[in-house]
Amino acid sequence: MDDLWAALGLVLVIEGAFYALFPQGMIDMMRRLPEISPRTLRVTGLIAITIGWLVVRLVRS
Question: Is the pTM of this model over 0.90?
Answer without folding.
Answer: no
